[in-house]
Amino acid sequence: MTTPDPDRAAAAQTFYSRWAGVYDRLARRAPGIRRLRRAAVARLDLSPGDTVVDVGCGTGANLLLLRDRVGPDGTVVGVDFAPGAVRRARALVAREGWTNVAVCRGDATRLPLDGADAVLATFLVGMLPDPAATVDGWLDGLDPSRIALLDLARSHRLPGRPLNPLFGVVVATTAPPGTRDHHDDPPARVLDRRVAGAHRTLLERCPSTSHGTRMGGFAYLSAGGR
Questions:
Q1: Most exposed among 20, 98, 171, 222, judged by the fewest C-beta atoms under 10 Å?
Q2: Boundaries of domain holding 190
Q3: How far apart, in whole angstroms, are the C-alpha atoms of residue 13 and residue 8?
Protein backbone atom coordinates (compact mmCIF):
# COMPACT_ATOMS: atom_id res chain seq x y z
CA MET A 1 0.00 0.00 0.00
CA THR A 2 1.25 3.48 -0.82
CA THR A 3 1.96 5.47 2.34
CA PRO A 4 0.13 8.81 2.40
CA ASP A 5 2.43 11.83 2.29
CA PRO A 6 1.90 13.71 5.61
CA ASP A 7 2.26 17.16 4.04
CA ARG A 8 -0.17 16.37 1.24
CA ALA A 9 -2.62 14.81 3.69
CA ALA A 10 -2.49 17.88 5.93
CA ALA A 11 -3.02 20.18 2.93
CA ALA A 12 -6.02 18.13 1.80
CA GLN A 13 -7.54 18.18 5.29
CA THR A 14 -7.21 21.96 5.41
CA PHE A 15 -8.66 22.34 1.91
CA TYR A 16 -11.71 20.15 2.49
CA SER A 17 -12.32 21.67 5.93
CA ARG A 18 -12.19 25.21 4.54
CA TRP A 19 -14.62 24.38 1.74
CA ALA A 20 -16.84 22.01 3.76
CA GLY A 21 -19.86 24.29 3.36
CA VAL A 22 -19.57 24.34 -0.42
CA TYR A 23 -19.06 20.60 -0.61
CA ASP A 24 -22.03 20.07 1.69
CA ARG A 25 -24.30 21.92 -0.74
CA LEU A 26 -22.88 20.03 -3.73
CA ALA A 27 -23.19 16.70 -1.90
CA ARG A 28 -26.90 17.27 -1.32
CA ARG A 29 -28.12 19.47 -4.17
CA ALA A 30 -26.06 18.75 -7.29
CA PRO A 31 -28.30 17.50 -10.13
CA GLY A 32 -28.94 13.78 -9.82
CA ILE A 33 -26.82 13.36 -6.68
CA ARG A 34 -29.63 12.16 -4.42
CA ARG A 35 -30.64 9.51 -6.95
CA LEU A 36 -27.06 8.26 -7.12
CA ARG A 37 -26.72 8.08 -3.35
CA ARG A 38 -30.01 6.21 -3.01
CA ALA A 39 -28.88 3.73 -5.66
CA ALA A 40 -25.58 3.10 -3.86
CA VAL A 41 -27.29 2.55 -0.51
CA ALA A 42 -29.84 0.23 -2.12
CA ARG A 43 -27.02 -1.95 -3.50
CA LEU A 44 -25.91 -2.68 0.07
CA ASP A 45 -29.22 -4.49 0.71
CA LEU A 46 -29.11 -3.45 4.37
CA SER A 47 -31.35 -5.07 6.97
CA PRO A 48 -32.68 -3.68 10.27
CA GLY A 49 -30.06 -4.09 12.97
CA ASP A 50 -27.06 -4.01 10.60
CA THR A 51 -23.89 -2.03 11.27
CA VAL A 52 -22.75 0.02 8.28
CA VAL A 53 -19.64 2.16 7.90
CA ASP A 54 -19.72 5.19 5.61
CA VAL A 55 -16.06 5.73 4.75
CA GLY A 56 -15.31 9.30 3.72
CA CYS A 57 -18.71 10.39 4.98
CA GLY A 58 -17.93 14.07 4.42
CA THR A 59 -20.61 16.31 5.87
CA GLY A 60 -23.06 13.42 6.27
CA ALA A 61 -25.06 13.31 3.05
CA ASN A 62 -25.52 9.51 3.27
CA LEU A 63 -26.30 9.22 6.97
CA LEU A 64 -30.08 9.60 6.82
CA LEU A 65 -30.36 7.10 3.95
CA LEU A 66 -28.28 4.55 5.84
CA ARG A 67 -30.09 5.09 9.13
CA ASP A 68 -33.45 4.58 7.48
CA ARG A 69 -32.24 1.20 6.19
CA VAL A 70 -30.74 -0.17 9.41
CA GLY A 71 -33.53 1.14 11.65
CA PRO A 72 -33.34 2.12 15.31
CA ASP A 73 -31.60 -1.13 16.26
CA GLY A 74 -28.84 -0.75 13.68
CA THR A 75 -25.68 1.33 13.79
CA VAL A 76 -24.29 3.85 11.32
CA VAL A 77 -20.66 4.96 11.64
CA GLY A 78 -19.33 7.79 9.51
CA VAL A 79 -15.58 8.31 9.13
CA ASP A 80 -13.83 11.28 7.53
CA PHE A 81 -10.37 12.82 7.71
CA ALA A 82 -11.31 16.51 7.36
CA PRO A 83 -12.10 18.18 10.70
CA GLY A 84 -14.48 20.69 9.11
CA ALA A 85 -16.52 17.96 7.45
CA VAL A 86 -16.64 15.93 10.66
CA ARG A 87 -17.93 18.93 12.60
CA ARG A 88 -20.76 19.45 10.11
CA ALA A 89 -21.68 15.76 10.11
CA ARG A 90 -21.71 15.65 13.93
CA ALA A 91 -23.87 18.79 14.03
CA LEU A 92 -26.34 17.05 11.70
CA VAL A 93 -26.47 14.01 13.97
CA ALA A 94 -27.03 16.21 17.01
CA ARG A 95 -29.80 18.22 15.32
CA GLU A 96 -31.64 15.08 14.27
CA GLY A 97 -31.15 13.38 17.64
CA TRP A 98 -29.85 10.16 16.10
CA THR A 99 -28.59 8.03 18.96
CA ASN A 100 -27.45 5.17 16.74
CA VAL A 101 -25.32 7.30 14.38
CA ALA A 102 -21.72 8.22 15.21
CA VAL A 103 -19.18 10.23 13.24
CA CYS A 104 -15.48 9.98 13.93
CA ARG A 105 -12.37 11.47 12.43
CA GLY A 106 -10.14 8.90 10.82
CA ASP A 107 -7.97 7.94 7.86
CA ALA A 108 -9.69 5.77 5.24
CA THR A 109 -6.45 3.85 4.76
CA ARG A 110 -6.25 3.01 8.49
CA LEU A 111 -9.80 2.83 9.77
CA PRO A 112 -10.23 2.97 13.56
CA LEU A 113 -12.78 0.13 13.38
CA ASP A 114 -12.70 -3.64 13.36
CA GLY A 115 -15.96 -4.93 11.93
CA ALA A 116 -19.13 -4.11 10.01
CA ASP A 117 -21.94 -5.76 8.09
CA ALA A 118 -21.55 -3.34 5.21
CA VAL A 119 -19.21 -0.63 3.91
CA LEU A 120 -20.10 2.31 1.70
CA ALA A 121 -17.74 4.80 0.07
CA THR A 122 -19.13 7.55 -2.16
CA PHE A 123 -16.92 9.88 -4.19
CA LEU A 124 -13.88 8.93 -2.10
CA VAL A 125 -11.48 6.51 -3.77
CA GLY A 126 -10.22 9.10 -6.27
CA MET A 127 -8.66 10.97 -3.33
CA LEU A 128 -6.70 7.98 -2.03
CA PRO A 129 -3.04 7.38 -2.96
CA ASP A 130 -3.53 3.61 -3.37
CA PRO A 131 -7.28 2.96 -3.55
CA ALA A 132 -7.00 -0.67 -4.66
CA ALA A 133 -4.94 -1.53 -1.59
CA THR A 134 -7.29 0.49 0.59
CA VAL A 135 -10.34 -1.44 -0.61
CA ASP A 136 -8.40 -4.64 0.08
CA GLY A 137 -7.81 -3.34 3.60
CA TRP A 138 -11.51 -2.64 4.15
CA LEU A 139 -12.44 -6.14 2.99
CA ASP A 140 -9.81 -7.73 5.22
CA GLY A 141 -10.06 -5.50 8.29
CA LEU A 142 -13.79 -4.79 8.48
CA ASP A 143 -14.77 -8.11 6.87
CA PRO A 144 -18.11 -6.80 5.60
CA SER A 145 -20.62 -9.06 3.91
CA ARG A 146 -21.52 -6.24 1.50
CA ILE A 147 -19.63 -3.28 0.04
CA ALA A 148 -20.54 -0.54 -2.45
CA LEU A 149 -18.46 2.11 -4.20
CA LEU A 150 -19.87 5.14 -6.01
CA ASP A 151 -17.49 7.45 -7.87
CA LEU A 152 -17.18 9.93 -10.69
CA ALA A 153 -14.61 9.57 -13.47
CA ARG A 154 -14.38 10.32 -17.17
CA SER A 155 -17.00 8.72 -19.38
CA HIS A 156 -16.09 6.06 -21.92
CA ARG A 157 -19.41 6.02 -23.73
CA LEU A 158 -21.99 8.26 -25.28
CA PRO A 159 -23.56 10.63 -24.44
CA GLY A 160 -20.98 11.57 -21.83
CA ARG A 161 -17.70 11.08 -23.68
CA PRO A 162 -17.78 14.42 -25.60
CA LEU A 163 -18.06 16.19 -22.24
CA ASN A 164 -14.81 14.71 -20.88
CA PRO A 165 -12.79 17.91 -21.46
CA LEU A 166 -15.28 19.90 -19.38
CA PHE A 167 -15.25 17.20 -16.70
CA GLY A 168 -11.45 17.43 -16.62
CA VAL A 169 -11.63 21.16 -15.97
CA VAL A 170 -14.05 20.60 -13.09
CA VAL A 171 -11.80 17.93 -11.57
CA ALA A 172 -8.72 20.17 -11.82
CA THR A 173 -10.60 23.13 -10.35
CA THR A 174 -11.97 21.24 -7.35
CA ALA A 175 -8.81 19.26 -6.52
CA PRO A 176 -6.70 20.36 -3.52
CA PRO A 177 -3.94 22.85 -4.41
CA GLY A 178 -0.75 21.25 -5.70
CA THR A 179 -2.43 18.03 -6.87
CA ARG A 180 -1.03 18.35 -10.40
CA ASP A 181 2.49 18.87 -9.01
CA HIS A 182 2.56 15.32 -7.61
CA HIS A 183 1.56 13.49 -10.79
CA ASP A 184 2.75 13.25 -14.38
CA ASP A 185 -0.83 13.22 -15.68
CA PRO A 186 -3.71 15.70 -15.36
CA PRO A 187 -5.97 15.18 -12.31
CA ALA A 188 -8.76 13.62 -14.41
CA ARG A 189 -6.46 10.84 -15.64
CA VAL A 190 -5.21 10.18 -12.12
CA LEU A 191 -8.84 10.01 -11.00
CA ASP A 192 -9.64 7.52 -13.77
CA ARG A 193 -6.84 5.18 -12.68
CA ARG A 194 -7.76 5.34 -9.02
CA VAL A 195 -11.45 4.73 -9.57
CA ALA A 196 -10.74 1.86 -11.95
CA GLY A 197 -8.30 0.25 -9.50
CA ALA A 198 -10.67 0.42 -6.54
CA HIS A 199 -13.69 -0.88 -8.43
CA ARG A 200 -11.67 -3.64 -10.06
CA THR A 201 -10.47 -4.81 -6.65
CA LEU A 202 -14.05 -4.98 -5.36
CA LEU A 203 -15.21 -6.92 -8.39
CA GLU A 204 -12.29 -9.35 -8.17
CA ARG A 205 -12.57 -10.03 -4.45
CA CYS A 206 -16.32 -10.39 -4.07
CA PRO A 207 -17.98 -13.54 -5.47
CA SER A 208 -21.31 -11.77 -6.01
CA THR A 209 -20.99 -8.43 -7.79
CA SER A 210 -22.77 -5.80 -9.83
CA HIS A 211 -21.35 -2.89 -11.80
CA GLY A 212 -22.78 -0.16 -13.96
CA THR A 213 -22.50 3.46 -15.00
CA ARG A 214 -24.99 6.30 -14.79
CA MET A 215 -25.22 9.97 -15.66
CA GLY A 216 -23.93 9.53 -19.18
CA GLY A 217 -21.15 7.22 -18.04
CA PHE A 218 -19.60 9.60 -15.50
CA ALA A 219 -20.93 7.84 -12.39
CA TYR A 220 -19.51 4.39 -11.59
CA LEU A 221 -21.39 2.18 -9.14
CA SER A 222 -20.00 -1.19 -8.07
CA ALA A 223 -21.23 -3.46 -5.30
CA GLY A 224 -20.21 -6.83 -3.98
CA GLY A 225 -21.39 -9.47 -1.55
CA ARG A 226 -19.36 -12.09 0.28
A1: 98
A2: 6-225
A3: 9
